[in-house]
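lol ok so funny story. i was supposed to be doing the assay writeup but got distracted and ended up predicting the structure for this chain instead. priorities right. anyway since i did it might as well share w the group, maybe its usefull for someone
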Amino acid sequence: MIGDISLHRYQHQSGGTECLSVRNRHGFEEFLLNPCVQSLEDTHMNKLFSALAFAAIAWPITARSQVIVRVAPPRVFVERRVPPPGPRYVWISGFYRWNGARYIWVPGRYALPPRPGVVWVAPRWVAHNGTWTFVAGYWR
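and the output, tada:
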């Protein structure tokens, strides 16, 4: 973990490729770098990891933004869940996001936890002095 992002190196399901991904502090993949490349020698992979680590440190702090709104969010409605796609999947509840002019409903979904033993902390809107601040959901 470097700042608010972490670099992940893993073996692809096919077994013959190595993958790199970059995730934010909440476990969501921000973007994928060379999603799955043919198995590289460790020296090349380590050089790539070092370059990514440097880029992560140089990541501008201003990239973290906060959403603050003067209009209260609508009531959250209860979604009807379908059966999970597998035994390890966790339900991620829907929530309202602000699009700059109004609230938009983001439907719930199932997701696999990034590692065993973590729980999903749902996103929420927090009231403070007549404004509402969005707190993103994350794995804890």
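The two ends are 14 Å apart (CA to CA). The longest strand covers residues 29-38.
back to the writeup now i swear
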